[in-house]
Amino acid sequence: MHSIAMFMSKLVLLLSLLISFVSSEDTSFTFDGFKSANLSLDGIAEITSTGLLKLTNNTNFQMGQAFYPNPISFRNSSNGAVSSFSTTFVFAIVSEDAALSGYGLAFVIAPTRGLPAGILSKFLGLFNTTSFVNPKNQLVGVELDTTKNPEIDDINDNHVGIDINGLQSERSATAGYYADDNGGFRTLSLKSGQQMQVWLEYDGVQKQINVTLAPLDVGKPKIPLLSLSRDLSPIIGNNMYVGFSSATGETLANHYVLAWSFKMNGQAPELLLSQVQLPPILVGIERSKFLTIGLPVIIVSLASVAISGVIYVIRRKRKFEELLEDWELDYGPQRFKYKDLFVATKGFREKEQLGKGGFGKVYRGVLPTSKIEIAVKRISHESRQGMKEFVAEIASMGRLRHRNLVPLLGYCRRKKELLLVYDFMPSGSLDKYLFYQPTLTLCWSQRFRVIKGVASGLFYLHEEWEQVVVHRDVKASNVLLDGELNARLGDFGLARFYDRGTDPQTTHVVGTIGYIAPELTRSGKATTSTDVFAFGAFLLEVACGRRPIEPRWRTEDAILVDWVFSQLNRGEILGARDPNLGADYVAEEVELVLKLGLLCSHSEPAARPSMRQVVQFLEGGIPLPELPSVGLYASGLTFAMSYPVAPMDNAFTPLSSIADSLLLEGR
Ligand SMILES: *[C@@H]1O[C@H](CO)[C@@H](O)[C@H](O)[C@H]1NC(C)=O
Ligand SMILES: *[C@@H]1O[C@H](CO)[C@@H](O)[C@H](O)[C@H]1NC(C)=O
Ligand SMILES: *[C@@H]1O[C@H](CO)[C@@H](O)[C@H](O)[C@H]1NC(C)=O
Ligand SMILES: *[C@@H]1O[C@H](CO)[C@@H](O)[C@H](O)[C@H]1NC(C)=O
Ligand SMILES: *[C@@H]1O[C@H](CO)[C@@H](O)[C@H](O)[C@H]1NC(C)=O
C-alpha cells in the first residue's frame, strides 16, 4: 500500500511538473515559518507543528531535503544568461556536543528536486574519480559545514563555502561576519544552536556571487563573507529547483530552517524575524534530549548522505586494506585476510594483547570460522625493500614443523605493517616463569625438559630441515610453553627483520644484548654458531633464574656468564643455580647444564659445540669435555658490551651484512 501511495504521489508530482507552467515571470516567495508552506519534502525532513522546517532528526544515516515545489527559470528570455537573484534564510544547528557535531546543511540550486535520484547518485558515481566536482551536476550551493573533511579540502569544521557542481568549495571562509561599525571580523559557531541568517546574492551583470552570514540580531553586514566572480550561465540549467539538503551520518545534529525568502531579479523579501524564533521550550527539549541520548545531530551539505555513506565505505575499505602482490599468490594458503585477523583479535584490542617485544605487539585471537586460537604479531616496517624475499622466507618457515617450534600459520601484509599468525601458546613465554618467581615457577625436571626441547628445536632448524635456518634470537622470552608445558621456540628468523628497510651501507647485527656472540659484532654474520652462543646464555638463564646481564648487580657479577665462571673456578658451580629451585634438583643435571652453558658461551666459535653435540650431551650420550680454565667468556661479552649500543627495545643493532641470508642455501 505504502509503495503504491508513494508511486502515485510521485506520478502526481511528475504530472503536475509537466503541466506546471514554468514561471517566466520573476519568481518570488517568502516563508516566515513553514506552517502553511507547500514544500516538497524528502527523506526524514518534516515541518514541525510549530512551523519549523526540520531537515533531520536523531537518526543516523538519514537525509532530509526540502525544495520549493515548482521549478524556477533562472534565465533571461532575451539573452539566455542567468539573471540576478537573491535568497535569504534563517537557520539553527542545534548540537549539544560540539566535538561530535555533524556535517552541516546546504542551500542548493539543483536540476531536480529529489537529489537522491539525481545528484546524489551522481555524487556516488563520482567517487571513482579524483574529484567530487562534475560539470554535469549543474549544481550551485552554499554549504554551512560543521565538519572538516580533508578529502574535499575543507578548511576547518566551522565554515561557509560556495560550491559549484560539487562539494569542493570554490570559496570558503570560517563562519563569521565583518562588523559594520569597524569592519572587524567576528567568528560565529555554526553549531552553537544560535539562530543565524544567510544571504546569497547573484548579480547577473557583474557575474558575481556574494554570501553573507550574521547572527539574527545583527542585520545584514555590508561586507559579504564570501564573494566569487563567476558566470553561472554555463552551470545553471533552464529550470532549476531551490531548497535545502542535509543528512545525518555517524554523528547527529538537529538542523532547522526557520524562515526563507527568494526572488529572481531583485532583493529577496525581508523576513519577519519575530515569527521565526525557535521556541525556547523546543530548544530546551532538544538540548536535553541530546544530553540524555548523547548524540549530536548532523546535517549535511549538498550530498551529505552520499558523502557520509561513501566516507564510511572508504574508511571501512581503508580499515581493512591489505597489500597483495602477484608474487604472493604462490603463498595463497598462508595468506590471511586482514579483516579476519581484525575480527579475531577484536580489533587488536588492548585487552587481547599478549605481550610486546622488540618487533611489535602480539595479540591473542580466535579465527572467525575455524575457531582456532591464534597469536598475531604485528610488526611495523617502513620500507618494502627486501619484503619479497622476507615473505618468501616466512612462507618457507611456515612449512617448518617440529614439536619444539611454535607453528607459524601464515601472514598478512598491509601498508607499513606485517602480521604473522602463530598457533596460540596458552602458557605464555618461559621468561615469566624464570624471572617473576616465586609466583610462577618451574621445578628442575620441568626446566630440564624445556632445555632439551629447545635444544631439539634448534637442532632441527640447524641440521634437520631442508635448509639451514639460523634463529638469530634465542632467549628465554622467545621460548613459549604449550598447554603441557612443552617448550616451543618462536620467532625464528624474525630478528632478521631489522635488516630490512635499512640502507645497504648501514647494516645491523640483530639479537639481544647478552646473547650476541662476540664475532657477530665484528663480522655481522649470523651463523649456527652464533645461535649456539645465544643458546649457552639461555642455558645459564634457565639454570640460574637470572637474565644474562643484570645491570643492578655489582659490576663484577652483572654478567651472568662471568659470574658462573667464577663460581666454577671456586669449585662450587652448583652455587650458581637458581635458589628458587630449593632442594628439589638433580645435581648432575644442573652441573651439566651450567657447564654446557659455559661451553656454548665460549668466545671462540670453534670451541663451541654444534647443536647436534649439544643434544647428545643433554641426552647423556657423550660426556662433556673438560672446560678450559682460562676465562674466555668475559672477553666475549665485554667486547660486545663495549660496542656502541643503539637501544631498540632490548635489541642490539650495530653491524651486519644485508646479503647474508637467513636461509643458508645448500649447506
Ligand atoms: C500544494 O501543492 C499541491 C500539489 O502540488 C497543490 O495541490 C496545492 O494546491 C498546493 N497548496 C498551496 C497552498 O499552494
Ligand atoms: C526521525 O524521523 C523519522 C521519519 O519522520 C521517524 O521515523 C523517526 O522516528 C524519527 N526519529 C527520531 C529520533 O525522532
Ligand atoms: C534580459 O537581458 C536583456 C538584454 O541583455 C536586458 O536588457 C534585460 O534587462 C534583461 N532582463 C532581466 C529581467 O534581467
Ligand atoms: C565511474 O564508474 C562508472 C561505473 O564503473 C563508470 O561508468 C564511469 O565512467 C566512471 N566515471 C569516471 C569519471 O571514471
Ligand atoms: C558583493 O559585495 C561587493 C563588496 O561589498 C559589492 O561591491 C558587490 O556589489 C556585491 N555583489 C552582489 C552581487 O551583491
Describe this structure in words.
This protein is an alpha+beta fold. It contains 15 helices and 27 strands. The strands form six sheets. Strands 1, 3, 4, 7, 14, 15, 16 and 18 form an eight-stranded antiparallel β-sheet that branches. Strands 2, 5, 6, 8, 9, 10, 11 and 17 form an eight-stranded antiparallel β-sheet that branches. Helix 12 crosses helix 13 (587-600). The longest helix has 21 residues, at 444-464. The chain is elongated and about 110 Å long.
Please describe the topology of this protein.
Elements: H1 2-19, E1 28-31, E2 40-43, E3 46-47, E4 53-56, E5 63-67, E6 72-73, E7 85-94, E8 104-110, H2 116-126, E9 140-145, E10 159-164, E11 171-174, E12 176-178, E13 185-187, E14 196-203, E15 208-215, E16 226-229, E17 239-247, E18 254-264, H3 280-293, H4 304-319, H5 338-344, E19 353-357, E20 360-366, E21 373-380, H6 387-397, E22 408-414, E23 417-423, H7 431-435, H8 444-464, E24 468-469, E25 479-481, E26 487-489, H9 518-523, H10 528-544, H11 555-558, H12 560-569, H13 587-600, H14 611-619, H15 633-642, E27 663-664
The structure holds 2-acetamido-2-deoxy-beta-D-glucopyranose (5 copies).
